[in-house]
User: What shape does this take?
Amino acid sequence: MSTIKLNKPPADSDETPKRSKPVRRVSSTLRDRTQPPPKPAPKVLEKTAPADRQQASAEKPVRQERSRHEGKPGDKPYARKEPRNETRNEPRRESRNDSRYGSQRDTRKAYSADSPVRREDAPPRRPIPPVDPDAQPRLSKVMADRGLCSRREADDWIVNGWVKVNGEIIETLGTRIDADAEIIISTYAKEYQAENVTILLHKPVGYVSGQAEDGYEPAVVLVKPENQWSEDPTEKTFHRGMYHGLAPAGRLDIDSTGLLVLTQDGRIARVLIGDDSSVEKEYLVRVEGELSANGMAKLNHGLSLDGVQLKPAKVSWQNEDQLRFVLREGRKRQIRRMCELVGLKVVGLKRIRIGRVNLGKLPAGQWRYLAANEKF
Assistant: This one.
């Protein structure tokens, strides 16, 4: 059986020992339960001298942290990674005062033509001249210059909607375009152009080349089925639709005979009678009279008509009374007037070649079609 030993009070004490609970020590101000507890005093931060602060920071362990601008190891220096914007369809907003990185608005302003900020050494800006629409060439002229067709054909194609410029169909006459614009011709226009005919006529004396005048008939009246050359190599048949737009490409006066070209193709007309045409035309000229001194040299180069010097020609004797002329221009009655200036009179003139197309055996008053392999 165990024995419990009790603590006895000191001998000089009159109190009897009592068992009590352990006492929790509290502040002396809370001992009086009749008074409300006092409010805690506000914390006062004590200022530390710089030396003390440095000492305190030295004693405090340094924690290795990466700056939010530092990035991960291996990244480029100062490479800032912006947090991803989680809001859909909402651009990231940047501070206008962020002078280091700049804002999206400031970036656009830097590349704006109206930005007043300019480098001091930048060259002065040249003003952009306004585009004058009247300075642009007409569509029909550009088409003719490129050899696509004649101006008259170009107008017909534009009205029919067969011309496309830079992907847009042009149907208005007189439209002006850039000289280097892309022009596409419809296949309908090409088929229409392929149906154009060119006729070689051996014009006799007494017919004019173009419109009727002074009671003389134009040479086109000779283009009839009965006058088609029986040895025409093209074997094409006559049809009355070929009269539409058929016009002479060059002149041959009423007293002259020989090769005359009548065509519906504006490209051929431009090659033969255009301002920049250089196609040779060969003539056999029968003359009378006596050639003046240096007359042959003057016929080749040195004569002027109406105050304009003629282009160089090739003139030589074919026989004792016939000259051979090769010209690259066609003034009105040019050969007859040239001969008069050197003392000669023309009594007969016949054109036998235009470019690479010869009159050949074609009889006077008859005609034939220009073959596909014949080029001027």
Remarks:
- The longest strand covers residues 344-354.
- The chain has a mean pLDDT of 77.
